[in-house]
Amino acid sequence: MGKVxxxxxxxxxxxxxxxxxxxxxxxxMTPVYDVERFGVVNTADPMQADILLVTxxxxxxxxxxxxxxxxxxxxxxxxxxxxxxxxxGGVFKDCYNINGGVDTVIPVDVYVPGCAARPESIIDGVxxxxxxxxxxxxxxDKYVKEHGESERDLxxxxxxxxxxxxxxxxxxxxxxxxGSRDKEAEKK
Amino acid sequence: xxxxxTPKETIRVIEKDGLLRxxxxxxxxxxxxxxxxxxxxxxxxxxxxxxxxDKTLDYETLRVVCDLADRIPSIHDFYSCASFYENEMRELFxxxxxxxxxxxxxxxxxxxxxxxxxxEDAKAExxxxxxxxxxxxxxxxxDLAQAAADEKLASGKKEEK
Amino acid sequence: MEEREKKRSVVPFGPQHPVLPEPIHLDLVLEDExxxxxxxxxxxxxxxxxxxxxxxxFNEYVYVAERTCGICSFGHGLGYVEAVEKCMNxxxxxxxxxxxxxxxxxxxxxxxxxxxxxxxxAFGFENLFYQCWRLREKNLDLVEMTTGGRLxxxxxxxxxxxxxxxxxxxxxxxxxxxxxxxxxRDVYKTFMTDYSVxxxxxxxxxxxxxxxxxxxxxxxxxxxxGVARDIRQLGYEAYGELDFEPVVSNDGDNYARCDVxxxxxxxxxDLIRQAIAKxxxxxxxxxxxxxxxxxxxxRIEQPRGEAIYYVEGNGTKFLNRFRxxxxxxxxxxxxxxxxxxxxxxDIPLLVxxxxxxxxxxxx
Lengths: 188, 161, 363
Prior knowledge:
Chain B has 161 residues and is an alpha/beta fold.
């Protein structure tokens, strides 16, 4: 591991994992394994996060959430898929509601195998991600120096259009909650 | 030695028309709804409602065997926690459960596949049976009640506005 | 002063939220700061595991059942194999029964300490959170020594268990558990007597005994409201030969739930000691012939409460139906009930207090 100049912040989201990997990710933060010694801090705010840890395969509902979290993160960003389900779908691959690994929705940089992924391998993955993040932020800095502005992401032109209202995704009981939302909108 | 139980575990098959009466009897005996689930076997639904006695840990299961297009009343009037189970049965198996409260309108799990637990041939059979029923006009009472409930919800929404 | 009109607003909570390790979404209807209604919506982790019995044969499915949830993984494996064994009339060797009991109590210690940590995190007591998780690692070391895994044990099979706990290991277990117990007393004292903890837990989210019964709640959540119901008293596996009483508290608030769960950890340590003292020598498993036919309901006390397994076989190696009713599924109506009338700031705590395990709830 080379010299790390920045302290990347880490966001964790459970796409459709069995909890095993989530708990191990959390265990990595606690004193026994302690990834914080690499300058990584766990955050819950996608806007401030640099590394996205996703556990579990993606299903029809969590795909939207993962996409949204990824879009909300500021560039440069790194994605780590933790556990075999996040890599390929794993034991749940044949389930009717699993679309496959996280890379079916967003680009993934580091794949961490294991079921459940052991804390040691998660730490390895995070260290790799920290290195990638360092390279990317160096490249980003260079670009800003040369062009005077940050690079536009042209690979995904729909990103802006997707930044929708969360209410569109999470209308549990469509009629009632929508009703109260409509009411709020009208009062304004 | 701690107090040990030797509970009775029974499964009783009942008619679908008698479901509400039996559930009411369970409620009055102070039983707790411990689970409800559906299963598909040989072209019929098997609905199991399990009740548990907290004092003796007895476990009684009411089993309703019904056709694919049969309408089943919701038991949420007696057990308000039944709504989750009933929404689940309807979404995963397509059991026609009427008047659930709160009604998630097949959006409890919000899965893409429609009634994934039902085999393909059973889905076709279900559609066929439904058409027969709608032609014969049976179960119109429940249809009316559901329509009235929907209308009430819609008018309530208007009033709020 | 002019009286303000009370406005209602809907605040979405989750699926991604600082206190939630797992996604659940709640639509909170607020009147000023007060919650008046809660509409839960789930399904972010729904995979369709129950349907997988049609693609995996009943022996393979043990490993899928264990991956229903990474926290109560052993319990799910145990419930599934017990249900299949009941279907097939298989009698498991006594040593295997004792081993299963020891492992399920280890799973309980791990799960409750994990919950205690998350609870401490939810009310912002970072130090306590780290202490709980440090103690949990001691228990996980024992699990790793005996099974080879940390979270997914993979020691169950239809007809018995795959691994043994040797006398050497038993010594280490007893030794480490004594250390854990001594340190846990300090953590327990902090939870019970610390001023700042009590501020957040005393009298918050009260659930009465009657509500518990009507809403069908179970497990430590129900026992904290004075319902002395512990499915382990059915005497499945080796529990019939061990001495224990359900841990009960009567207040029904967050404080009582902390109390019940932490006392259950001490109870589990005691149960493991009893089981190790009584464990007989013998076979680990019996051979199983044929395919499951018929149906069986099995109830098991998971760390989170009563879990129900239903297996329906059809004489082939693929089961017709596997049904799993998890404790969190039964506790969600209770959780929504406690939230009504609470202030918005208490919502994260009330979500954590049922010990939510969303991935087994949605399967």
